[in-house]
Backbone:
């Protein structure tokens, strides 16, 4: 446990090493940029696209065709958040996304402030109470300098808001927990899988509350935003079935799931590249093996949750579900790895904590500076340097290692839960969410290992 005194020197030494590695990575990125005029791997190969996750979506805040023409897979809440940010930081309300970016310097500044503020707020939540001030100070800088966080910053992705809601989900109970999950679902729909928690606990009232709150937020924001907001569901279905939606360079910039490997091997370009070293039968078998491995581990994790539900704490359920989500597929996005910051206090109480911390460190540190593949892709107009530059695209070591480490993290977590042999006792009674506004309702126990 992190509070044990003999842990303190080890924790501080571990944190210091990860911090120094991230500082070295930041120095490398800055030096590379000043020397070459663009950011290296893992930042997306299209150097004119910086912050465009933010401004592509921002453009559709003011266009009623967001669901009919653009086919948006973002729930209405996200558009309201962006509208609020644009208003507060005096951004542009007209023009195409590129024009809006060029005329919204304060919005970019504001997004940077949010980027810096969210980890600070996360570290202030209940689950971090056992960490000392100097430990949290170092952890803060590890977070904001970690490669997945810097990747999310460069993209301008709204996922940076999710960690604080997840931290509150872990720290709160009852109605507040249900509300946080509902808001997360309306930020990124894949967070609906967090509701498995209520099924594991057999808390049907909590499940009904969370479902009702999620639907209520969706309908209220949808009615206020767009008459066509129900097209969101059709867009989401089409998005999930569309093949070849992402370029190979996009997929391999920072993948979180080993499905990135099968995606590359199934694509014509990836298959052609692999055929120089492997037969077509071997490529086909590799695709099958990769997907079979992924789904086997996902199923094992769900079995662990339901089979050992009486042996695990609420926070451990959410921990496993978060890692489950990031392993699902390429559509989740590599920036989802920033969510792992909220898991550190949970993992610190588990048996193989040092193994988990080692895996998280590998995900966080800048191993992408080690190139595996390099090729020139011609000149691009680089937004950050405002110049035309010859771009040499690289695929770094992190693109291969992170998905493997992530599936290992899920498997080891599942194994630790599956092999628990002792029943748990409750140290206190806590209330879970009742139906909608009807108070806390069903009582449940928070379990701790004996």
Residues:
């Amino acid at each position: 446990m992190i509070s044990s005194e003999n842990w303190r020197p080890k924790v501080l030494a571990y944190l210091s090493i990860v911090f120094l590695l991230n500082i070295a990575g930041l120095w490398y990125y800055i030096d590379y940029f000043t020397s070459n005029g663009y950011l290296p791997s893992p930042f997306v190969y299209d150097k004119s696209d910086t912050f465009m996750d933010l401004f592509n979506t921002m453009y559709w805040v003011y266009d009623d065709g967001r669901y009919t023409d653009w086919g948006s897979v973002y729930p209405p809440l996200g558009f309201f958040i962006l509208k609020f940010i644009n208003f507060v930081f005096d951004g542009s309300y007209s023009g195409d996304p590129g024009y809006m970016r060029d005329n919204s310097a304060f919005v970019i500044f504001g997004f940077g402030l949010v980027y810096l503020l969210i980890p600070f707020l996360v570290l202030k939540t209940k689950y971090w109470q056992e960490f000392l001030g100097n430990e949290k100070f170092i952890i803060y800088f590890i977070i904001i300098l970690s490669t997945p966080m810097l990747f999310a910053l460069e993209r301008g992705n709204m996922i940076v808001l999710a960690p604080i809601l997840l931290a509150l989900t872990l720290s709160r109970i009852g109605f507040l927990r249900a509300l946080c999950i509902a808001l997360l679902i309306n930020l990124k729909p894949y967070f609906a899988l967090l509701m498995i928690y209520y099924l594991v606990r057999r808390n049907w009232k909590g499940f009904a509350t969370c479902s009702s709150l999620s639907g209520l937020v969706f309908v209220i924001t949808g009615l206020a935003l767009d008459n066509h907001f129900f097209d969101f569901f059709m867009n989401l279905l089409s998005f999930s079935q569309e093949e070849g939606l992402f370029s190979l360079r996009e997929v391999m910039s920072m993948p979180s799931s080993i499905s990135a490997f099968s995606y590359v091997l199934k694509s014509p370009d990836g298959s052609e590249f692999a055929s120089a070293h492997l037969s077509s039968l071997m490529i086909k078998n590799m695709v099958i093996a990769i997907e079979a491995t992924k789904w086997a581990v996902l199923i094992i994790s769900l079995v662990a949750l339901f089979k050992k539900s009486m042996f695990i704490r609420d926070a451990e359920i959410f921990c496993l579900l978060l890692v489950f989500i990031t392993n699902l597929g390429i559509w989740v996005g590599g920036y989802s790895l920033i969510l792992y910051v909220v898991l550190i206090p949970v993992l610190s109480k588990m048996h193989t904590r040092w193994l988990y911390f080692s895996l998280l460190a590998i995900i966080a540190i800048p191993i992408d500076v080690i190139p595996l593949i390099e090729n020139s892709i011609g000149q691009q107009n680089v937004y950050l340097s405002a110049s035309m530059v010859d771009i040499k695209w690289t695929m770094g070591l992190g693109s291969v290692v992170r998905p493997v480490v992530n599936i290992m993290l899920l498997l080891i977590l599942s194994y630790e839960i599956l092999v628990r042999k002792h029943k748990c006792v409750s140290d206190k009674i806590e209330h879970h969410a009742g139906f909608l506004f009807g108070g806390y309702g069903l009582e449940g126990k928070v379990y701790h290992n004996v």
User: Anything to note?
Assistant: The mean pLDDT is 89. Residues 5-449 form one domain. The chain has one domain: 5-449.
